[in-house]
Write a structure and sequence with these properties.
Elements: H1 4-14, E1 19-20, H2 23-27, E2 48-50, H3 55-67, E3 71-75, E4 90-94, E5 101-105, E6 110-113, H4 119-127, E7 131-132, H5 144-150, H6 158-161, E8 168-174, E9 180-183, H7 203-206, E10 218-225, E11 227-228, E12 237-238, E13 245-246, E14 252-258, H8 262-274, E15 280-284, H9 286-293, H10 295-301, H11 305-313, E16 317-323, H12 327-343, E17 347-350, H13 355-366, E18 380-389, H14 391-411, E19 422-427, E20 432-441, H15 446-465, H16 477-483, H17 490-501
Parallel strand pairs: 2-4, 3-4
Antiparallel strand pairs: 1-2, 5-6, 6-10, 7-11, 8-9, 8-10, 12-13, 14-16, 14-17, 15-16, 15-19, 18-20, 19-20
The chain binds flavin-adenine dinucleotide.
């Protein structure tokens, strides 16, 4: 329960019509996708929810929390699941009224956005001027601001459009004290074009690898890089996700490349990077994709050993979308790809021969719109590993996880994906590569929830034993407890940063620095 006096202060901060303590409203904030690692699926109920409309109102909310001994927890879209309250006495700061694209600077190729601008909308606006935005694997509904300032940032398009934390430029940040700090060129009054100066650069303090997940202030605006887009300004489409039809795209090509083994797959991936071709590049395992696209069909298929073998025979593969400003350049990229694949003993499947599938996958990957289908098969999913490392390390993470996933599949607590459950995109011409195992499980079954917590713990223990990069895991409190002592006590440094910037301890640090007893 929130005291009347504190509630009144929140009303004064944002206006009475933009604050609520109705239990029915508050409970709508308690289910936030895949974060729960255990049988429990609900997050804590906040004591109130506020909807500020400006930076000044966000400051007033933070100051009201300080004055009345409450904590705040920001929420941009809430797709991530780390945005719910993790403690008692938390005010949920729902930023959906801050939904403006402040500026698209076509010449300097960046956009300035507020928290509730979603990636799909930003992409549609950018495409009108021949530009595109990085969309993380979470899909078009995520907030580019939340991803770039406070979370991870991996996406299908990393080979060309990098990752959220590398695309972040100027930032406006309401600190836990309620003061505003402007980072990068914005901090010296020179506009939004750079994240690291002229002006203060605090990228590492502000977000590091995975971000503070709402535990270190509230970001109210930021600039993100935009990238070349050689497609139609307004792709003409009809239908929705799986029966979408897009007018033929002349400057794009979609290919699947299959290799005899992991070594040739990895070598070809590196060569693609060296050749500087590709707009989208990733391995998405066939079982995973089929479980997304056709869950019932996939379940039937797994009952037939010959079909299982057929799917596994195509295991070492990647999908690549090529994009070019001219047909000549597209032809060059295509020939280069064919030469690389053939040198490694592989073959190229050209999706020109399957126009309807090409259209679905083009939208699915350029817009990242297939990802939300991950919930279709079993209702929830969990990720293990998720490092950003070399291509060889990507393969290592795949192999280390495989026997674990095989066992869990036999135990029946995860969906059978033939232990080939990999999503592995690359970044910046394969400068780095990412690899995660995506486990599909039924969270309505409390046993599966319990098993999932144990499975994540086991995967992390194996990672530590084998000196693997912890990947995304480092956000969750249990994982932080395991990894921090073997990774230079990073959590102790995070605690120091938090103590320096949050003297009133007003932030909900559940997913930033807290460690369970
Ligand atoms: C199906 C699915 C797939 C996913 N795939 C990916 C993926 O491929 N790559 C990836 O990087 N992530 C992925 N995620 C995780 C997550 O969705 C993203 O990291 C995303 O950035 C967070 O979602 P959001 O934009 O809705 O932000 P929210 O859920 O609103 O917030 C995310 C976190 O940032 C904090 N936060 C939000 N806004 C602010 C703000 N303005 N100031 C300070 N803190 C703030 C929140 O408190 C929370 O801890 C996936 C999630 C789902 C559900």
């Amino acid at each position: 329960m929130i005291a009347d006096e504190a509630y009144k202060a929140l009303e004064e901060a944002v206006g009475p019509e933009h604050v609520s303590r109705e239990p029915a409203v508050l409970d709508t904030y308690c289910w936030q996708t895949h974060i729960s690692q255990g049988p429990e699926i609900w997050t804590m109920r906040p004591v109130a929810v506020v909807l500020p409309a400006s930076t000044e109102e966000v400051q007033a909310v933070v100051r009201a929390c300080i004055e009345h001994g409450l904590k705040y927890k920001p929420f941009s879209v809430g797709w991530g699941g780390f945005a719910g309250a993790g403690k008692e006495d938390v005010v949920q700061v729902d930023l959906r009224r801050m939904d403006r694209i402040v500026e698209i600077d076509e010449k300097n190729m960046y956009a300035v956005v507020e928290p509730f601008v979603i990636a799909g909308v930003l992409q549609a606006e950018a495409m009108k001027v021949g530009l595109n935005t990085h969309i993380i694997g979470a899909g078009p509904g995520h907030s580019p601001l939340a991803s770039a300032t406070s979370m991870m940032g991996t996406g299908w398009d990393g080979i060309y459009m990098s990752t959220s934390f590398r695309n972040l430029l100027g930032v406006e940040w309401v600190l836990p004290s309620g003061e505003v700090l402007r980072l990068g060129s914005l901090g010296s009054g020179s506009g939004w074009f750079s994240g690291d100066g002229p002006g203060p650069s605090l990228r590492g303090i502000m977000r590091g690898f995975v971000g503070a997940s709402g535990g270190l202030g509230i970001f109210t605006k930021c600039a993100v890089k935009l990238f070349n887009y050689p497609g139609p300004p307004k792709p003409v489409t009809s239908g929705t996700v799986l029966d979408v039809k897009t007018e033929p795209l002349t400057n794009f090509g979609l290919y699947m490349c299959v290799f005899p083994d992991q070594e040739t797959y990895a070598d070809a991936t590196l060569k693609v990077g060296e050749a500087e071709i590709g707009y989208i590049h990733h391995k998405t395992s066939h079982p995973l994709l089929m479980a997304f696209l056709a869950p019932r069909f996939w379940r039937k298929l797994t009952g037939h050993s010959a079909l299982r073998d057929a799917v596994l025979a195509l295991r070492n593969q990647f999908t690549i979308i090529l994009a070019a400003d001219t047909q000549r350049e597209l032809e060059y990229q295509k020939k280069t790809l064919e030469a690389i694949v053939s040198d490694q003993g592989g073959f190229v499947l050209n999706f020109d021969a399957f126009p309807s599938l090409q259209q679905v996958l083009w939208m699915g990957m350029i817009r990242s719109s297939v990802t939300p289908l991950v919930f279709r098969a079993t209702g929830n999913y969990m990720v293990i590993y998720g490092a950003d490392e070399t291509v060889d390390s990507q393969v290592l993470h795949e192999n280390v996880g495989e026997p674990l996933v095989k066992r869990w599949t036999e135990e029946g607590t995860v969906l059978d994906e033939l232990a080939d459950d990999i999503w592995a995109p690359s970044y910046e011409n394969v400068n780095r590569a990412h690899c995660e195992h995506i486990l599909l499980f039924d969270h309505r079954d409390r046993e599966h929830g319990r098993a999932m917590a144990e499975q994540v713990a086991e995967a992390e223990t194996v990672a530590i034993e084998q000196y693997l990069d912890p990947g995304f895991g480092i956000i969750a409190p249990d994982a932080r407890k395991r990894f921090s002592p073997v990774a230079q006590n990073y959590n102790e440094y995070q605690k120091k940063i938090h103590a320096a910037l949050d003297e009133h301890d007003v932030s909900d640090t559940t997913f930033y620095t807290d460690i369970p007893d």
